Amino acid sequence: MKCPFCGSFNGQVLDTRQTERSSAVRRRRVCLECKKRFTTFERLEDFTIMVVKSDQRREPFDIKKVREGIMRAVEKRPVSVEAVDALVNEVEQDLTKEYVMEISSSAIGEKILEKLWDIDMVAYIRFVSVYRKFADIDTFMQELKKLKKENLKRERSRSQL
Ligand SMILES: [Zn+2]
Fold first, then answer.
1. Residue partners of 23: CB distance under 8 A and separation at least 6
2. How many whole angstroms from 17 Cα to the centroid of ligand 1?
3. How does pLDDT run along the chain (161 residues), one tens digit per residue?
4. How many CA atoms lie within 13 A of 55 on its CB side?
5. Rounded to an integer, what distance in angstroms lies between the CA atom of residue 131 and that of residue 143?
6. How far apart are the CA of 33 and the centre of ligand 1, in A?
7. Are 29 and 9 in contact (CB under 8 A)?
8. Strands, E, within the chain: which ranges?
9. DSSP string computed for 96-133
């Protein structure tokens, strides 16, 4: 962002705030050349991935929420914080690589699940049960059965390697 005082591009963001209508963010910046401070307004669409929730509401993608969800799933499991961070990074990188402007929360969930599978089975099941919000225990049991089958298939294909 160009400094309006001296024209330098050497600036730093001090503070980011969402505007009331949440279609833009307000950033407080400082120019590292002339030390003057200025405020910019940026449209979210320009740099933020929007997450479309199941009720069609949109909110800016927040990597912290992804991390929290995963941390909850791996609670008391033998999964290191490093492994969680690596997973979170992968999810974020996938999203930026795909250059999506909008993604459904369920697509993010699927991405996380895909990666959790290889890390910890219990965490995977926990995440499934929270994020898919099963209407009843039968649907959950069905899902578990499906998982077992998929798991077997994977094991087989792995042992063939
Ligand atoms: Zn300046």
1. 43, 44, 45
2. 22
3. 788 889 898 989 888 887 665 566 788 899 999 999 988 877 654 556 788 888 888 888 888 888 998 999 999 999 998 899 889 888 887 876 665 677 888 888 888 888 888 898 888 888 887 776 655 666 667 777 777 787 777 777 767 65
4. 2
5. 13
6. 5
7. no
8. 11-18, 24-31, 37-43, 50-52, 58-60, 102-104
9. HHTT-SEEEHHHHHHHHHHHHHHH-HHHHHHHHHHHTT
From the list 16, 63, 25, the residue with the least C-alpha distance to 44 is: 25
Residues 6+ apart with CB under 8 A from 124: 73, 113, 116, 117, 147
3-class state of residue 158 by DSSP: helix
Confirm whether pTM is higher than 0.70.
Answer: no
On whether the CB atoms of residues 63 and 54 are closer than 8 A, the answer is no
List the chain domain ranges: 11-46, 50-159
Q: How far is the CA of 27 from the centre of ligand 1 (A)?
A: 15
Alpha carbon of 111 to ligand 1 centroid (Å): 42
Q: Ligand 1 centroid vs 29 CA: distance in angstroms?
A: 10
Sign of CA dihedral 149, 151, 154, 160: negative
